[in-house]
Design brief:
Layout lengths: L10 H13 L10 H10 L10 E5 L4 H14 L4 E4 L11 E3 L2 E2 L2 H15 L6 H15 L4 E5 L17 E4 L7 H4 L3 H8 L8 E4 L6 H17 L2 E4 L4 E6 L2 E6 L2 E6 L6 H16 L8 H10 L7 E3 L11 E4 L5 H17 L4 E5 L7 H5 L8 E5 L10 H10 L6 E4 L2 H11 L4 E5 L2 H10 L4
Parallel strand pairs: 1-5, 1-6, 2-5, 6-7, 7-8, 13-17, 14-15, 14-17, 15-16
Antiparallel strand pairs: 2-3, 3-4, 9-10, 10-11, 12-13
Length: 448
């Protein structure tokens, strides 16, 4: 939870979000008051025991994209879909969608009032309180399915109170939130694997290559065996590959032809594969036609993820190309680098990275894959959160990596865009480093 999460157009809601934020301000623990959290759920009538069927989604990267793809396909099938995701880009309402619509201000405010009354000042976190009230909203609103994203880790996450979900999904795992989860990839993988349940399918995504990927896959194998979950593994039970404007999804040795998702980037093909593996694993519970899959893949929308922005939104010449992404860790850097290579096959435009990053993140891990492709790096503040890295912080990391390139500091992301367009016309600009930075950019151009 960060100060940036409290932004809201409605002053009464903003004040109540601030009240929740002040209950427990810590950067070192998660869910340390689990008993008090369960007491809050009990006061709400234990809504987590009366939810629609749940697909529970964990992982370091791609959780939101997988949920967006699942939601688009299920809605194309005519189903009513709840979803819970975090963090949000502009307003907290985005986190809770009820039958496809973001929760309205009046409903959210009423639930916050109830939560604060029931909680009686106990030091619960913002995420614990919003999760409890989201469960209440989900239980009270009819729907066919709930897509539930883990907030942090898995084993100790406050979403992990669902005894028998339809499926558990674990996507790409890498080093992130190390101040909470530690620096050992095996330990992080074990935390994520904590959402596995006996006799419930566990769909796992592509984990990359190298030693970390092998360690993660070893942990997932061990935890599937010990938990009694049903395994659905990338590379063993399912696979996906793209060809032109189509992709081939393979499940249990049968191939299926589908369009590429409308989300940009090769990594979104893998995320689509996870979503499809989940649906194919659940065919005895959820009927989804090939036409619904086609329609959902073509229509899925998930802002702030390799999203192309119009130069006119920034009042600059249209010969400048602008892309926005929320990525902030090593896996995100690898995904962005793969897309950059595609751009470089198309043309030789200079690439300027505009980056704003919270001080809890490791800029070196994001930059490692990106630096070889950059013309210059531009550091900006995240206006809504003072806890962000400076030019000096990032410059030190780059020197340690033995890279030498122009690095500039700007007051804001918009200033950086204007300066780049003025001094380097016909450039390509990539904005990355934080969900909060992405939210500020989207708010500047008029919203989602």
């Amino acid at each position: 939870m960060h100060q940036a999460d409290l932004k809201h157009d409605d002053k009464a809601l903003r004040d109540k979000l601030e009240t929740i934020f002040q209950l427990r301000r810590t950067r070192s623990k998660i869910n340390w008051d689990r008993g008090q959290y369960l007491d809050l759920l009990a006061a709400f009538g234990n809504p987590h025991l009366n939810l629609p069927p749940v697909i529970h989604v964990a992982g370091t990267n791609g959780k939101g994209s997988i949920i967006a793809i699942l939601q688009a396909i299920l809605q194309a099938q005519g189903l009513k879909v709840h979803s819970y995701t975090s963090p949000h880009l502009i307003h907290v309402n985005e986190r809770i969608t009820l039958a496809g619509q973001a929760i309205d201000n009046a409903c959210l405010e009423q639930l916050i009032d109830q939560a604060l009354d029931y909680n009686k000042g106990a030091p619960l976190s913002f995420f614990e309180i919003t999760t409890a009230l989201a469960f209440k909203a989900f239980a009270d609103t009819p729907a066919d399915i709930l897509l539930l994203e883990v907030g942090l880790g898995g084993r100790l996450d406050c979403t992990n109170v669902i005894d028998a979900p339809l499926a558990s999904v674990i996507n790409r795992i890498s080093l992130d939130h190390t101040d909470f989860l530690g620096n050992d990839i095996r330990d992080i993988a074990m935390e994520k694997a904590g959402i596995m349940k006996a006799d419930v399918p566990c769909i796992s995504g592509y984990q990359g290559a190298g030693d970390d990927a092998r360690a993660v896959n070893d942990v997932l194998t061990e935890e599937i065996d010990s938990s009694g979950a049903y395994s659905c593994r990338h590379g063993t039970d399912w696979n996906v590959r793209s060809s032109g404007e189509r992709m081939t999804f393979s499940f249990k040795d049968q191939d299926h032809d589908f369009p590429l998702p409308s989300l940009q980037g090769a990594h979104q093909v893998q995320n689509a594969g996870v979503a499809l593996a989940t649906l194919f694993s659940l065919r005895q519970h959820i009927e989804v036609s090939d036409q619904a899959i086609e329609d959902g893949l073509k229509s899925v929308y998930w802002p702030g993820r390799l999203q192309k922005l119009a130069a006119s939104d920034f009042y600059i010449a249209d010969n400048t190309e602008i892309w926005l992404d929320s990525g902030h860790n090593d896996s995100a850097g690898e995904a962005l680098a793969a897309e950059i290579k595609q751009w470089q096959r198309q043309d030789d435009r200079p690439l300027h990275l505009v980056m704003g990053m919270l001080d809890t993140k490791d800029s070196a891990r994001l930059l490692a894959s990106l630096l070889p492709h950059l013309t210059a790096l531009h550091i900006v503040s995240i206006v809504s959160d003072p806890q962000c890295q400076t030019k000096d912080d990032i410059e030190g990391n780059i020197k340690e990596m033995r890279y030498d390139m122009p690095i500039y500091a700007h007051e804001s992301c918009v200033d950086a865009i204007h300066n780049i367009a003025r001094d380097n016309p016909s450039s390509r600009i990539l904005i990355a480093g934080s969900v909060y930075l992405a939210g500020e950019v989207l708010e500047h151009i008029g919203g989602l």
